[in-house]
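Morning F.,

Quick status update on the modeling queue. The single chain you submitted on Monday has been processed. Sequence for confirmation:
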Amino acid sequence: MKIQQLLAGTLLMMFLFTSVQPVHAQNKRQNVIGMEEIVLDNILARTSIRSYQDRPVEQDKIEKMLRAGMAAPSAVDRRPWHFIVVTDKQVLQGLAEANPNAGMAARAPLAIVVCGDKTKALTRVPDYWVQDVAAATENILLAAHGMGLGAVWTGTYPNEERVKGVTRVLNLPEHIVPFCTIVIGYPEKPQAPKDKWNEDNISYNTFGGSKPAMVEPEPVLREFNVNEDFLLNPFNYFSQPGGLLVCAGDRNGNNAMTIGWGALGTLWGHKTNTVTVYVAQARYTHEFMERNDYFTIMTFKDQNVLRYMGTRSGRDGDKAAALGLHVAYTENGTPYYEEAECVIECKKIYSDTFDPANFKDEVPLNFYDGFEAGYHSFYIGKVVKAMKK
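C-alpha cells below.
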C-alpha cells in the first residue's frame, strides 16, 4: 500500500505540476530520481478492478481524480467534459441496471460518470469531444490506481440504449451525453496486470513497415567528483593509448593538441587537486595556453582523433571542424569537445618554462638535443570541473 501511495502522490504531483508550473520549474523534474520508472510502472501496473471493499472513498481522493481528469488534453482546449460523482446507493443501483457492464456499481462505494458537454464541443468537428473525454477517463483511471484504488471503465456511448438509461438515472439535460461510467473503490483483493505488449500491433512510417535500424545517441557528458569517482592510476593516465588532448582558448579562437605528458596530484593543501601539462613553445596551442587562464584535458576512444590532432597544426586549419567535432564551452568559457569521453577543466595557478641549467639528468638533456620545437612550458592547473560519459 505504501508503494501505491507513493505512486499516487507522484502521479498527482505530475498532473498538477505540469498544469500550473512555468517551464523553468518543470525542468527541475529531471532531478527527481526514478520519476520515469514511477510513472511507467503506474501505467503498466493498472488493471480493471470489479470487486471492492465495503469502505468509502475519501473526498480528497475524489477531488484528486477529478483534477487528473481535467488535466487531460482536449481539441483547441475546449474541455468539453462534465463529471458526475455518484456515491448514493440508489443511484449506483440505477447505473448498474442501466448498463449491464456496470453491474458492479451496485456493490461499489463510488462511480464517476464521464460525460460530454455538446455546448463546449469544437464547432467544426463536434465529435472530437469523444476523444477529449476518453483522455480524461484514462487520467482518472491512472490517478485512481496510483492512490491505491481499483477502478474499471464501463462504456456507455455510443450504445443508444445505455445512453438513454444513464441519462434517465442521472436526469441529464439534452446537451450532456454520458460517455462512460468509472466504477471505483478499494480493491477487495489484488489483481495482477496483464502484459499487453504485442509487436504485431506496431508499424513504422507506413502500415506494415518494419522497425528501422536505430542509431544510438552519443552519451552525454555529466559532471563528477574527482575525489570520489576518479579511480584511474595517475601514472598511466597520460600514457593511455593515443594520449590525451589539451585544449585552450575562448569563443573567439581555440586549439587542441595531443599530449602524452602530464601529472595528476595535489598542491598547497589536500583539497587542491591539480593537473600539470607540458606544451612545447613552438606549438600553436602554446599561444592559447599563454593567453588564457583556463584549459581542459580530454580523453577519447577514437584513436583517429588523437592521431590527427597530434600530426596536424592548428595554424593550417580548423582541426576540430575537419574531424567533425563539436566545440562546447564551460561556464568559464573554456573550450572542450562534446565527443570526449572525459573532460577535466583546470584554472592555471602556476606556469613556467624549463631551464636547461636546472636539468640534473641526462634524459632531458638528450631529449632536447636537436628538438626543434623548443623547451616545454609547463602549466599547473587547479581542477575546477570534471565531466565524463
